[in-house]
Amino acid sequence: MAEMKKVCIIGSGNWGSAVATIIGKNCLDNDDFDNDVNMWVFEEYIDGKKLTDIINESHENVKYLPGYTIPHNVKAVPDLLTAVDGAKLLVFVLPHQFIKKTCHALVGKIPADAQAIHLIKMPETEPAAFRELVKKSPSIYYEGFEVNEEGKLELISNVISNILNISVSALMGANLAHEVAAGRFGEATIASRIRENGQTFKRLFQTPWFRCSVIDDVVTTELCGALKNIVAVGAGFVDGLGYGDNTKAAVIRLGLMEMVAFCHEFYNCQDKTVFLESCGVADLVTTCYGGRHRKVAEAHVKTGKSFEVLEQEMLNGQILQGPQTSKKVHDMLIQRGIDPDTKYPLLSAIYKVCYQGMDAKDLFTCIQNHPEHM
Q1: Are the CB atoms for 189 and 215 separated by under 8 Å?
Q2: Other Cβ atoms within 10 Å of 326 Cβ, number
Q3: Cβ atoms 156, 144 nearer than 8 A
Q4: Alpha-carbon span 71 to 147, nearest angstrom
Q5: Options 228, 248, 328, 352, the catalytic residue
Q6: What's the first-to-final CA gap in the chain, in angstroms?
Q7: How far apart are CA 26 and CA 202, in angstroms?
Q8: I need a labelling partner for 221 at 20 to 30 A (CA). Which of 104, 171, 201, 260 fits?
Q9: Gap between the Cα atoms of 210 and 181, Å rounded
Q10: What distance in Å separates the CA atoms of residue 351 and residue 357, rounded to the nearest whole number?
Q11: Tell me: the pLDDT tens digits for 12-21?
Q12: d(Cα 73, Cα 323) in Å, to the nearest integer?
């Protein structure tokens, strides 16, 4: 009889708790997995009571995913090493700023044949203790990436793999946490360099209402998870200006084309069909209509307030990753001697609105002579 692999979910914000609703049930229904699932929770107190105790007693993350039931076989564990003890399948779904520190704590503490998958494409609703750590020790992380020594964006899957020396897959897609937890139909893309590992994680995540495709292009999959947030900022500018659906559709399409060009330019991504997966165009559309980047960018245009102020007012102190990523992309283009205004006019214009005080209305002048129209 094949070994039943134990699963540990590393992270318990809104997205981590949402996927726990899937993983818990699938571990009960599938003989490939141990029935018991540990979920590492960064401990905090709610009205004087430990969050882990609340989750284990009420089977609900009342702070980060209220109103949704976490299966009884998912146990909240406050100690990281206790949570991962014996686990062969690690699901990383914690704020991206803490990947490196968390992985270093796991060195030598996990089985040599363990596998991992990460779902980190945007920062979750984070415990206050996490945010305080960020303030005290600012990181150089961007959404889904770390900046490597060459000044390029390094994939989070590579960061985890390099530290723990294990195979790391990625799950990306058009997935809003509360909709996944509610069981509304959706899709995701699982990218794995080892096909068998990808199929294992497909069995862990797929349900009749959460459908997963498996591909091998991890690089493009993860790049989509970061670049789409820049485009979503542009979509928010459209909404703030009241320019309508035609303009927004144009921004989404031109943004997608620039995403394709950037991935090819810097990472030699050849398979354009990846952009047709859930991790590509579907995630882009969802973020441009329903994500926080769109919402904050719209408010920026309507109120004239800075992104920093709006982050505090609208995102409970979280850092909006889209503007940061636009700056890093701009810097990479300049370092390579590429004129951003000529080759990536949309991404460049979004950067200028975010960092150089350009009026959002001028974004559309910048893209009137887009290379796609020549």
Answers
A1: yes
A2: 27
A3: yes
A4: 37
A5: 228
A6: 62
A7: 10
A8: 104
A9: 10
A10: 9
A11: 998 999 999 9
A12: 39
Contacts of residue 116, Cβ cutoff 8 Å, sequence gap at least 6:
89, 90, 91, 92, 160, 161, 164, 166, 167, 168, 169
DSSP one-letter code for 318:
P
Between CA 134 and CA 296 the distance in angstroms is 21
Active site residue 228: yes
Residues 134, 145 contacting (CB under 8 angstroms): no
| Distance of alpha carbon 235 from alpha carbon 288, whole angstroms | 6
CB 293 within 8 A of CB 322: yes
Closest by CA position to 121, among listed 160, 87, 91, 94 = 94
Sheet of strand 153-155: strand arrangement: 141-142, 145-147, 153-155
- Whole-Å CA distances, 65 to 33, 117, 306: 25, 22, 28
pLDDT at 126: 43
| Whole-angstrom distance, CA of residue 30 vs CA of residue 55 | 24
Q: Identify the residue with better confidence: 98 or 96.
A: 98
Please name which of 271, 180, 293 lies closest in space to residue 227, comparing C-alpha atoms.
Answer: 293
One-letter amino acid of 297: A
Closest CA to 201 of 191, 186, 216: 191
For the purposes of burial, counting CB atoms within 10 Å of the CB of 354, is it exposed (0-12), middle (13-18) or buried (19 or more)? buried
Please state the length of the chain: 374
At 335, list the tokens: 């370092």
172: β partners: 189
pTM score: 0.88
